[in-house]
Batch of 3 targets.
Target 1
Amino acid sequence: MPDNEFQQRRARLLECFPTLQLDSFLVTHLPNVHYLTGFTGSNAMLLAAPGRDILFTDPRYTIQAAQETTCHVVTVRGPMLPKVVAAIARHKLQMLGLEAAYLPHLTHQFLREKLPLRHEFKLIAGQIEQHRMVKSASELARIERAVATNSKALDAVLKRIRPGLREMDLAAEIDYRSRREGASGPSFETIVASGVRAALPHARPTANPIEPNQLLLIDMGATREGYTSDMTRTLGIGKPSTFWKQTYRAVLESQLAAIEAIRPGVKASEPDRAARQVLEQHGLEKTFTHSTGHGLGLEIHEAPRLGRKEKTKLLEGMVVTVEPGVYLEGKGGIRIEDTVLVTRTGCRILTPTPKEWMVL
């Protein structure tokens, strides 16, 4: 990603300072640090201020930080916060913004104790995350590569799926194939659920064998170049009942209706409403127990969320998942999920994997 893109992001954050009544911002949430600086290490803080963007990290990342960011890098041996406090005092910064959603109580307490009383702190929620919702061209390219990696990994394992194969072995094979296709790892713990366990939306793979004549739900994501993807497919194994084939069609109809509702300017609640209306027509609305989708990017769950009460308006460049589902306790469940890009005139499905009813 071009260095000037990170500089532009920091500049855009600084443009918000007058409105927020800040002269500096301490960024501690690592995905936000990555977004603003390009640094991908596991330990860092960013002190953003006009004319002085300082990245604090530890000696493990001295070389890496110099390669990844144009910020001034301070390598800290031992606790990082005392060095941050010293920099705030040295540069005479007095109106410090802090990330409300990610600020540990002890960090807040330390800053208050160590900085003079004239310093003011302001807890800011969602400012950087709001900027992250609309993806740049370089981000979209990375997301599309992550999506393609995900789909190629599933294609590679489909021929290995058979009754008797353990859920955890299939999950491990998916993760292996994903890495072979270029992923740095899964975006989340791969979900493989067979038979009645498919009724658990976030089932963890177990040593249970894949059951014949039942459903198999696979929810998988790949992280590539720091960006994530997300996809769910539900397959029939052997000869599932006609009921499941009909239910699958209802879920697919619901998912397509939600996708059809995605376009710039609509509220994030609209795709969710469209999905639920279809399931209601099939008498399945009460079996859909989660929101219709979520944004993704540097994190697998980002804003905006596609849910009942969401008021955020969709914008060109947002990337969301669309994943309605039906879950019947003691019987099984179906979810179909694609990664979708909001375009200037509507949306584009990024996931290339077919989603017609498939029986193995």
Target 2
Amino acid sequence: MTGHPNDEDQLLEQIVENIPHMVFVKEATDLRFVRLNRAAEVLLGYGREEMLGLRDHDLLPADEADFFVAIDRRVLAERCMIEIEAEFVQTRHNGRRVLHTKKIPIYGGDGRPTYLLGISEDITERYESELALTASREEAELHNRERDATVRLLKRVVDEREIDIVFQPIVDIESELVVGIEALSRFAMEPPRPPDHWFNLAAKLGLGVELEIAALDRSLLHLEALPPGAFLSLNLSPATLVSDELLSLIDRYPADRIVLELTEHNRIDDYGELEPRIESLRRRGARIAVDDAGAGWSSMQHIVRIRPELIKIDIDLTRGIDANPTCRALAAALVAFAEEIGSTVVAEGIETAEELGTLRDLGVALGQGYLLGRPQHLPLPEVPATPR
């Protein structure tokens, strides 16, 4: 490292100077910098004249300097090359960078290390990219683990029928007698979520039909406990309606006391499979209801194509209908339409006597809502008398 340069020295100097990675040399005794190339200046943000003769602790944060010095001492003590896959260095202008460094002892004539040579490649972008990829993989693995745990949970609920069923009365608005009961599922799974969340999640995981069939099975067990002659209304998706499992289940009960309530909220373009299965269910005696009438295209498509026995008015149409002429006009149109096709209108979400009175005046036949009875376990109490 000393003496007059000759041609070989100049060639070596040019090679070192033009290496694209940082090259530095430290004295073995006190680890002061004695040589740096251009790449070192660019990376660290210091001129060579600023760094030569200084040590790591003169330039870098103490924790970083301590790490570098410890590695340097180990290289010199063990007299072997040490490779650091990723080390962090705080630069003057480029922030914190990640380096892949090799440190090598350079021996003097006495056979002892005289200098320490270091070569550092800036791998910041590659390191961050790999870190992001690893995080993405870990996130995917976590998602898969959570998915698998949810599948196991839902399968247990299906297998063990861990579904609580509550029942809400459907009342003849004119006589105020209970003519039907809607079965509603409740889940004790964690985290607490509305029933629709679990049914939608089950559908996404390929367990939608299985969970719905389990809920229907639990509901139908209570059929004989209903008021005499009252029908049982069961919520199900089109996928479950066309399933063979549903037919097998319905065949075990008096189908003329069963109403199958379609809960699909999206437009169905292909009724080719749905309509024949509905006719098969009707031949068994079951009736079909369409939910959320007046809520959009989906429900009206169901009504036109399916011609349901029951048309359930959407709760948003019922709410405040006594003070909303637009809702009243739409409800009146649905009543007239239902009469034309031989269907019965059911108003959901009745909460006030004023709403009930308006629906009665409009000719709505059946009603359901907190005013007439909340969802609860059997047996249901008598429906309270409502003012006319």
Target 3
Amino acid sequence: MTVKVEVFTSPGCTKCAHAREVLHKMADELGGDRIQWREVDILKELDYVVALGVLSTPAIAINDELVFTGLPSAEKLRTALLDRLDKET
């Protein structure tokens, strides 16, 4: 099973670039085949962003649920991903 992770970003956001890097590294560490992730540009997918309740960037959703409304620490992100991966197995 895989976990779907989305990182919500906006153009020019330096914290968003960092969030993308952290998420990419985390996905590789935990098994790239187990984590499916994508970057969501809030300007291009505004309706979806509003529907999830994203109010600022970066934000991270896991399995279609907004989990982080700001940049989490690497440990908090790892814990959230491992929790979802454990539930999937």
